[in-house]
Amino acid sequence: MSTPASSSGMSSLKTQEVLPALRQMMKNLEPNIRASGSMDAAEDLMLHLEERDPSFHRYEFVKLIRSNIEESLGPLMDEEIEKYARSGQAYDTGQDTVVQTMVAHLVNSPAYSNLTQQLMVETKSAVDTLTREFQEEQEAQQARESRVEGPGFRRAPSFGYLSQSSDNDSCGSSLNNSDFMFPNQKEFEQIGEKMDQRQPVQTRVEAIEQLGRIPPTEVLSSDNWSQLKKGLMDALGDADTELADKSLKLHARMFSSSQHSMNREVYTSLVEHLNMQFTYKGQKGDLKTGLDVTSPSACRLLRRFRLMNEFMCVVPSYWIRCPDKFLEEVVDSTLYLLHTHPTKALGGAEPLTPVHYLAMLDKKAGWFKKWMHGNYSRTVVLRMLKEKYRALIDNAVKKSLEFCESRKQPHNLLDEVTSALQRESISTDGQQNGDGKRTTYTGPELEYIYFIHSLCMLGRMLLYSNGRAFFPIKVKDREVKVTDLLVSFVQLLSLPNQSTRPYTGLDAASLVADVLKMIAGCEAALVECLCKDAVVSVLLEPVKARLKPTKGKKAAGETTLLHIADILSCLASSQTGRRMLLYGEAGNKAGRPNKNISSTAAHTIVEFATRALSSTLPSEESSPSYEVVGAYVFVCRQLYSTCEGLSVMHSYKLHTCIAEAWRMASHEADIATTPLPAVEGDQTDSRRVLLWEESLIDNLLNFAATPKGLLLLQQTGAINECVDYMYARYAKKLQVSKHEKFGYGVMVTQVAATAPGMVALQSTGFIKALVNELWTQLECGKDDVRVIRPSPIPVDPIDRTAHKSFTSLLNLLSSFPAVYEALAEQKLQNAESYTFRDMPNDMVGLIERLILVDTPAKMHALFNYEQSHTFGLRVLSVMCSCLDTFLLLETQYKVQESLLGCQAENVKEESNELIIDALSVERNHVLVRTYLIGGPSERKLPPRVLLEDGRDPYPFPLFSSFPIPKSYTTTMAGRSAMKQDSELSRYLSQTKTAEKNQAWLDGCRKAFCKVLTSKPDLAKANVLVDMLEKVVQGQIKVQEETIFPKVDYKVMARDRRDIHGSDKVLKSQSLSAVQQLGVQLTIRYGSHLNLVKNTKDTKEQLSHLLKQVRFFLRQQQRNIDCQLRLLQGEYVGHDWFTSTLFLMMLGKSERCWNFLLKFSTLLSSGYLWMPRLHASAHLPVPLTVSGIHPVYYCSAHYVELILQAEVPAVASAFRMSGYTPSQICKHWLRQCFWNYLDWLEICHYLCTCIVLGVDYQVYTCVAILRHLTHDILQHTQNQDLQVFLKEQPIPGFRVGEHLEFMQQLEERYRQTVQPDMRNLAKP
Length: 1323
Hints:
The protein is mostly helical. It is 61% helix and 1% strand.
């Protein structure tokens, strides 16, 4: 420990250095100390100064202390570190860390004691010096004032030493002294007498100065306040400049009082004075001569209005803490002044009003915005306007309409006014224009300022129902409604001179646009104000003029078009505004689509966008810029990113136009970025082209927000580029757009629902990045996180840190086509050893390392074996909820065999009993789930957690081989031999073959609906099969139902013997491994339901039927040269529809085959029978090549459309979760609700769709989601919606109970849904 070093450090700390540093710090802290209110609060402030003051380390005093600490103790710290390094031993165990030990040694050292002692001595000396200087200054001040004031005044001590504000400050002058006087009542009388207007000016000035040294509360509480108030008002209006200024400054100072009563009295006094100026003092200028603010009278008046306006803007922040009377008196006095209108002289010009003066200071009525913000004040303001001062609003409407009508006059005043108003602020100091400020305002400028103020006031009023209740307003013998006013405002947007003038912020178009956007942001105001055909029609007139120009009439300019696009964008950001644009006022009120409306705003917008993109607008005008075109494409994007918007707009082929424009822009960008000799302006053009290219690819990507839009995006051929762009933004966690609250989660899920989407995600590296991130979270942790304590042991199966990656992974693996593209024909590595650095990069690697952990090498390669393997088993469980995915995993990777092997190895050595732990319970759950098929009441799934019962925490038996124990199966009732009669069975028995026409079909529908709603248990499989056969026999005679040509299977077999379907050929063929395993599942399920017997003959019957179907459908498929694995050959999944019919017909394959031959010609076959349209020749080639099934781009699309309109809470829950209704509905429909509904409900679902119409497929999904509303909202909050919907059955859903709701949906949406489902060739 070096004494010289420490003493040299001490020598640098001197009083002459501490004194200025301490003075500077105290000077900065004085406002906070004064605001403390008590000594204890001030002491607490100083003790916690470092925590509360962000400038703490910038004070010179703090820097001085820090430098002395470093200089004095730095060498000692170096010695401690060297000593520790040389010793190589830890310090005593009484200390937690080495750092704490070193600090303890330093604190206990003599150098530290010397430093603190000297610091205290020098700081105390500096404080004493500051105190002495302060006292001397105060004594000198008191001595000076005692010679002026005379006897009789008591003084309060001063609270500060900071210099006062300059005289030029209206809120701080010589009146704002640091010490107060406390006069008695007699002295107040003397001051009041001196302030009388009959006294000399100098006497009145001295009296006001004396009054300024009295606390405001003392002034208000005196008995002479009325006299003093009158004297102050007289002084304000006095011709003497000094006297008037002193009075105004005293008013300003009194406003700083914390007493609301003082503020009220001073404000009402000021307002009363201003009102007298306009009422009794004559005109304060007129519109003909304008206003020169350099004149003394105008200058003084503007300064008084400025003080009033400042208080008006500040008082809303605290008047809720004041009595109601305070608010009412402030509002009443203000509105009384503003509604005052000076009398117009006979033959004279229109006089200026208080609103003109206030508008010059607060053009956009900021005070009114604050007054209307809270309900507490808004209620009082609107009530008083309605009861007393309605003329103020009437006059605002009148002036606004007059200004809007004057725009028709051929003048260029507006440009001159707005540019003049933007030059400088108003001069209110009475000086000439030497500093460049405005000094003169012409009459038209004053009128324009009045219009701006009125526009902002009226716009704010229209936001609230009580404000809209003022309308209609009578103006010039006509009633002005809200719509009439808004139409007049909207017409200002298309002023001809707006095309060449830059954006200023005070031009009429900008102000109107801001007001309309503000209204569009309020749902209630939007409905009553902007969702009107009259308003939207006028708004779109400039756009229509560009589409169909009128000869001799100049089209609207770029600025106008941009303003309109901004307003339309705000409209399209809400559901109400969006429906207004799509369907018009009538369609929006009806609450449902109306495709007969072809002249709505959406059609105009999309037509302008498509023609602008393709450069086919009329050539009379110059082509719109990229900014304008991009703005209208963005509005279209807000529409087509929703299902209903795309349904209205897709006929314009906007996706094709955007794709073509993007390709052209991409080509231009490539040329622009090629190194060329520098040319002036090229860099700007290159940047503009690059931004345009990015905008187009962004808009094109947003087609992926809906199922049908994703199909259109795939058909443009740009899906890979779009997904690449999405991945770049998704990695940066950017929002989709300025009006979109969520990120790209929903869009990624939508893209991953299809095979081409999965291919695109793989090619861009999205899958690899997700897998790597997931692996890092599970196995590695974050290197950049400072570890201050050990991580807690996870207690949840899926740790919160990995939950988001878990959800994202499930979204990607939710759809079988996507899973097939990622996993088909991909083999596991199954290496003999793995290092900790071996990280999986794809889905196959993830399955191998996390799910199929069945070898010691895989186990030892995991840092967190149990946690990571549990994660993998949870993923496997959700994946296997899709039966086709399970069949693929089982046939390709033997998942069940691997899990059974792990269970067999997890036994006790002494008893060979399976050990119950977290992994064995998870594996047991997955094994039972994948082995059994059944609805909510048809199987028992074991829990994933132990029960609280200590005696038997897991009463479900574990197993290591199939079949599973009987305790997991339920007992099903056998088929009843008693024939139960019903209205449907009687109707069917009375039918003759020749009677199956449209009338018979209608009667059958009624009978079926009646039985389904009243006695659904009587609608058993035998009756339903009989009904289906007869209904299909009748439907094939209806032209609208038969859209596929009839194919004679036997004739085709004779003509083409190489693929014929004879029994000999069929027996020689074999089913795929997936279908063979599907046959086993089907027979096992049918045997459990007592529908068929689990025998070899039954399996052969079903296999033979599937082979017949395969040969039959192969004749109607085209060979496709495509990179998608999904389309390389026959249908890759199992035929669950055929399997369902096979069980319904009790295993009678011939009967089922005959039914399928007839059924294959009907429209419903394309949607209920998934293999029917696989690579079908009945679809256009682009649709076939896309690999996207109509169930997704049509049925699921309309599920989302109807769900948004009928059950918006559920639609919002899906969006927040990052999952989509289309994915889960496609999942349900693909496997005919197996594992989700009980068998009888599955039969009712199929019969409903065939008998009542295939659009009931859509209505059934909507009814199910509506039935699950409570659960969906709950699991959205728990952030496990995807897991719930895929793993859990649908308990309590009965088709008959929801048939009435589905019939209501049919009435509303059949005209929209059914034609689109029929039009398979043109989606």
